[in-house]
Write the structure tokens for this entry.
Amino acid sequence: MHRRPLKSYILTAVLLVLDAMAMWGIWVSAHALRRLADPYFVHPINNYFPYYAEALMPYLLVWWGVLGLYGHYSHHRRISSLNEMSRVIQASFTMFLAMPALAWFLKEFSLGRAVVLLAWLFCTIYLYISRTILRVVKRWMVRHGFNLIRVVIFGTGETGQQVAENIRDHPEVGYYIIGFVDDGDGVAVEGLNGTPVLGSRRDLARIAREEKADEVFLARPDLEKDELLNLVVELEGANVTVKTVANVMEVIRGEFSDGDIADVPVMNLRDGHLSPQQAVLKRVLDLGVVLGTIWIWGPLWLVIAIYLRLTQSRPVHFAHERVGKDGKPFLLYKFRTMRNEVSPQAPAPTDGLDPRVTKAGRWLRKTSLDELPQLINVLKGDMSLVGPRPEMPFIVAQYEEWQRRRLDVLPGITGLWQVIGRKNLPLHYNLEYDFYYIRNQSLWLDITILLRTVPAVLTGHGAF
């Protein structure tokens, strides 16, 4: 008999409490040891412990944040001792930098440097011991049938059977196979190597819900892109983690790989939703960058507007209806780069010699400065700095179901398409980049894209 997996937030809450208790004990111990060593120091320690007790909370908040940053509260089922050590070292080094910095901000408490450094050393030791114990406990639970992950495998062919066989051969991973879902049109009821076939393709989401599956493996590496992504969207309502069994050649080419079941590579398709805290941080990043650089782009905007007014006919700016978050229409602002007679619904240029583009517009598009007015869209909240590019309503009306997921987030001025996509193709042919961004979005990914946008703009590569 197997038990359902522990809810990750319960385990996280327990760890947070244990870490807080450990931090308190470490803080007290470090202070006590420093007092005992007073004769060996030139200056005596500040023995007023309430100061240390009051300073503990900021240290604890930083400690929690660093551990969260390096994955010590994300409960992977399979992690080696080497990976565990790597995460401990990363967190320890970050804490080594953060703790003295905090002591400086809390200098009115006169915290002893030796206390702070001892606390850091004890925290590192505690972290390694506690996470090693946690890893051993998790493996013990798996071996005894507790905390198993319930799995449905979509695909009864060779790949699906290989996944099932490897799961059975590696029970330490902690998977429990509920059954297969047939990838044909008819409902199959017979078993497959002792594992039941629960239904057909059209029943997949229902089966995942009713069987209370935790993960669904899409064991069909030959699926067309649209069919695969539509399946992913369909399964979102079943509250499961979706993993695709990757084609080995795609992994070799480096297109994707996010794990494995023994020797079968898989890709984990995340749900892509930002937490409320992450959403606030993303908005703070947007406003901070835009307002913090207004002294650069403000005068530049004015110079470009004056130049366009003197060298070409009005209007200088171009406002065009686009579809934003949750399908809400808004006006997107740009500098006008195409001739007045060109239809607003005309396809974007894919050639640097497109005759529809004005002489000044060619330079603006090459440098991406034509998009400078969209910073106003960011300030208004219609757009973000990073996200999928907003599309025209008539193109959105033709979206597949999975493509409509790009409307779940604010559109952006820049994104993966701009920094690594195929810029010689129209926007709507690059939606897979947007889908990847949405399902993997984070503050760090936004910062990475922004940093990569700078050289892309300076070189003008692929911009028309």
